[in-house]
Fold this protein.
Amino acid sequence: MLIDKPIFEPSEWKLTKQQKQLCEETRIIASKKFEKRAAKYDLDATFPSENYSDLYEHNLMGICIPKEYGGRDADLKTYMLAASEIGRYCGATALTFNMHVSSCLWTGFLSDQLEMDKDTRKEHHKMREMHYERILKKGSIYAQPFSEGNASAAGKTAFGTIALRTEKGWIVNGKKIFASLSGHANYYGVLCTELLEINSKPSRSNTMYIAIPAHQKGVRVEGDWDPLGMRGTVSRTLIFEDVFIPFEEQLMPRGIYYNAAKQWPHMFMTLTPSYVGIAQACYDFTVRYLRGEQPGMSPVKRRMYPTKQLTVAQIKIILEQTKSIWYQSISEAKPNPSKEQLMRAWAAQYSVMENVNEIARLAIRTCGGQSMLKSQPLERFYRDSRCGALMLPWTAELCMDMLGKGALYEQGESDES
Ligand SMILES: Cc1cc2nc3c(=O)[nH]c(=O)nc-3n(C[C@H](O)[C@H](O)[C@H](O)COP(=O)(O)OP(=O)(O)OC[C@H]3O[C@@H](n4cnc5c(N)ncnc54)[C@H](O)[C@@H]3O)c2cc1C
């Protein structure tokens, strides 16, 4: 099988040696192994377990674990570039992989750049050593269930999942919806609100980030999973009923997640690489199909029709625009970005999540009826591509909301009397 060219050609996009290497690894594994399994995971709405065995075997589960712990030491940008190559061949694998990798990014690259006093830093290093060891030595998978169906995942209120502090740990009660990897992760990296007393008022500044072992007493997965797209993510509902969690299961010391989320807004862009990959896959498919080179289809050429050429041009323009703003935004990601950088991040998120669906729509319209049969991947790309804009905290709507306000108001300005 031919392996496609990189989404970001290393010399043209000035990738580092490490970025080039990791993108090549993910591109090869995903195109050789994940692509052929993607249709089945999608059809059955089952978790891509075999792909995870491959990721572990190829030493990629610790892609963002710092070098001193034995990981591959990728920073935010490097990870996002490498993950886009996975999304190109299996969107659901890339999206779930993101949930796993996020636990390493929050606790590794991101928190290493935050200020912490010496004792907190020491405590943090001790905690993460345990989590990293599980990932690297046992192949443990970490999920990232934040959403609760209320305003908390949008960053507007405290999480309704409550961790009541006791002498030896917490008693956790709550519910998480859309928990990708549910029933398949070994640990759920849960955001919850710590309460010191049962009747105290929940506050966002008491957000805790803790790892709940999947088999801990009181943890339950419930509900069906039969969605439109991203079906292999198996994002069912998680219930926590009086789950006891010892203190050492924290992923970050108390208070640190809240600061990290405020200071590192670009972290919320980690949901985009899967969709950058799908956008590229739609373009690749369209070109192959119109040239009569799509495997499994009769070699009929359609490229000579002017209307098809025009649509391919339109797709290419949208793809290049999307890649460019995304690349700029992930290149300038840093703690406490400027207002312009933050607004560009929202614009980049919006562009990826909306444009991928537009590209998929144009690809189906121009390739024609046979291209949307289930025997071809384009109809899956189309369905998967619709999911990106719905993902909190930066849904397409919320990005527009923040951009509009950001453009018209400076800090402290208000028209309310
Ligand atoms: C395939 C897939 C996988 C997912 N995997 C995960 C996962 O692993 N972990 C995870 O945590 N989540 C995951 N999600 C969930 C996702 O991030 C969203 O939380 C979810 O789609 C929200 O669904 P909802 O219907 O509750 O959304 P909405 O109703 O749109 O939003 C929920 C709440 O947010 C607030 N809100 C929404 N829009 C606005 C607005 N414009 N202005 C102000 N407030 C607003 C409102 O209070 C609203 O009630 C996944 C989603 C999908 C589709």
Q: What stands out?
A: The CA atoms of residues 66 and 73 lie 4 Å apart. The chain has three domains: 17-140, 162-257, 264-407. The longest strand covers residues 169-179. Residues 99, 144-147, 149-151, 153-154, 178-180, 230, 233, 235, 387, 390-392, 395, 397-398, 401 surround flavin-adenine dinucleotide (CB under 6 Å).
